[in-house]
TrEMBL record:
Enzyme Commission number, as recorded: 5.2.1.8
Lineage: Bacteria, Pseudomonadati, Pseudomonadota, Betaproteobacteria, Burkholderiales
EC top class named in words: isomerase
Family statement drawn from the similarity comment of this UniProt entry: Belongs to the FKBP-type PPIase family.
Annotated protein name in UniProt: Peptidyl-prolyl cis-trans isomerase
Keyword terms: Isomerase, Rotamase, Signal
Catalysis performed (reactions): [protein]-peptidylproline (omega=180) = [protein]-peptidylproline (omega=0)
Summary of the function given for this chain in its UniProt record: PPIases accelerate the folding of proteins.
Disulfide bond is among the record's keywords: no
Transmembrane segments: none
InterPro entries: PPIase_dom_sf, PPIase_FKBP_dom
Residue ranges constituting the PPIase FKBP-type domain according to the UniProt record: 47-132
Any one Pfam family match given in the protein's UniProt record, by short name: FKBP_C
Top-level lineage group: Bacteria
Source organism of this protein record: Paraburkholderia lacunae
Length: 133
């Protein structure tokens, strides 16, 4: 009887720890979405205009851009950004925060842009503030 109680207690603790851990999804394109804070609002579609706070870093941790550098949340059509963003932000709900890990092919690929060298894997911390109607 004592061993059954121990097993039940271990199962409860394990499921509680799993519920507290961030949910991570790997999309078919290789984009990884790590949900840091689950939102409670609606999920955007690629046709929506979203309002986000973000911070972008290279694989070595160097920050190359952030919404804070531009004075606050950024607003843009979700279907007109890099594929990693279009795919990853659609997996979020308003109010949520996530880390998007973007393989180079879903970011800027061979071309690179500004401080981002060609063929760079990127990471973005994203907070989905809202959907603009």
């Amino acid at each position: 009887m004592k061993s059954i109680l121990v097993l039940v207690a271990a199962a409860v603790l394990s499921s509680t720890a799993m519920a507290a851990a961030p949910a991570t999804e790997k999309l078919p394109s290789g984009v990884v979405v790590e949900h840091i804070t689950q939102g409670t609002g609606v999920q955007p579609t690629a046709d929506d205009v979203v309002k986000v706070n973000y911070r972008g870093t290279l694989a070595n941790g160097t920050e190359f851009d952030s919404s804070a550098k531009h004075g606050g949340p950024a607003t843009f059509p979700l279907g007109r950004v890099i594929p990693c963003w279009t795919q990853g932000v659609q997996k979020m709900k308003v109010g949520g925060k996530a880390k998007l890990t973007c393989p180079a092919a879903t970011a800027y690929g061979e071309r690179g842009v500004g401080p981002i060298p060609p063929n760079s894997d990127l990471t973005f911390e994203v907070e989905l503030v809202g959907i603009v109607k």
